[in-house]
Amino acid sequence: MYIKILKRRSGRNYIYKGESHRDETGKVINKQEYMVQIHERVIYGDWDYLMQYIECWREKDFLFWFKLVCKLQFDVLKLD
Question: Please, which domain of life does this record's source organism belong to (predicted)?
């Protein structure tokens, strides 16, 4: 499983999780599930709003929550 934060032309970010695997013929199959559509200012500014989403994900899918928190922390540290 991997997590991507993808910026679209409209200026919004989409956080989604994806899974890739190979079938019997060797063809790669990708499955992507969009989790939330948020503005970039929410990721880097409005933490209360973002924490509501993060807490909801923690209850549903702990592995996704852990990877998301690590990715957000890495992206914020990378900007400094």
Answer: Bacteria
